[in-house]
Amino acid sequence: MGFRSLVVATWFLLVVLCFLSSAADPMPPCEFPAIYNFGDSNSDTGGISAAFVPISAPYGEAFFHRPAGRDSDGRLIIDFIAERLRLPYLSAYLNSIGTSYRHGANFATGGSTIRRQNETIFEYGISPFALDMQIVQFDQFKARTTDLYSQVKSTPDAEKLPRAEDFSKALYTFDLGQNDLSVGFRKMSFDQLRAAMPDIVNQLASAVQHLYEQGGRAFWIHNTGPIGCLPVNLFYVSNPAPGYLDEHGCVKAQNEMAIEFNSKLKERVARLRAELPEAAITYVDVYSAKYGLISNAKNLGLADPLKVCCGYHVNFDHIWCGNKGKVNNTEVYGASCKDPSVFISWDGVHYSQAANQWVADHTQNGSLTDPPIPITQACRRK
């Protein structure tokens, strides 16, 4: 081989080695200073407890060893997101006592919907804090904390307040839609609910657009889970007709509606990317993660996914988790099971900590997201 050929070959080898080195050396993680979350009970860390009656024991027992404002025995997916990003657990915006908002705030409340509902929380548990109100609360939070920070920035009080520049660097997370479907199942025909879906997803898109106008750039949007697999939907069903349930015992038609909703949400998110040129928007397929967990429960050594850990649910007698009631003139307490870690459903509506962790592990790595990026890279537009 001549010298010229040797130089060319050496140069080519160096280029290949540099390429392989860069491929093996991924981009550094995003440095999110804060998380701002909007959602329902799947991500509420104390909002509805602060606004109304506090969630009682045995909620929170598996991790916090006391009620912690969460509808689970322990942590929620949003808690595992905070852990992955090495940030503190989010404090609820509505729970201001002893709270630090330096690393974000949680505007989610149990029972929240995307589209405002014309009913009270005392009827069917629907929160008055729909997504539009959560956005109003965020606007007020941003304006007031920015003003207050300028007044106390040289004092220790500033450490509990967000820095103005962090709002544009934060991760904005969404987990809503389940309650819009549940209200629809209660009040509408499937055709009416289907017709309402574009407006519902447009209202979520409007919230993202508003936050973008306020400086937000990184968005992590969960779709809705397999609502037909929530045990509560089977509490009053006996001898279901053929085809009513799928092969895993879930209400087939309800899951089909959730899939249709998610399809429209994904399409709307795709359009948002074109409308918001500087935004990094990640669509997260929580449905597939949760349904995958439910369908593989036996192989994973878990309890029947339609069985409930906390509460008394025998035949048509139902005492909800943490409550007392009478069955055949005998007082019964809705207690926790002995080992919540083998249950998927905590209380018939909400997932156990173990299930939340499994879903978090299978979504935060990017395997079920569009674009397929881990949450640590969610600031990067693809």
UniProtKB/TrEMBL annotation:
SUPFAM superfamilies: SGNH hydrolase. The keyword Signal applies. The keyword Hydrolase applies. CDD domains: SGNH_plant_lipase_like (cd01837). It comes from the Eukaryota. Residues 1-23 form the signal peptide. Keywords: Glycoprotein, Hydrolase, Signal. Belongs to the 'GDSL' lipolytic enzyme family. This is GDSL esterase/lipase. It comes from Salix suchowensis. The lineage of its organism: Eukaryota, Viridiplantae, Streptophyta, Embryophyta, Tracheophyta.
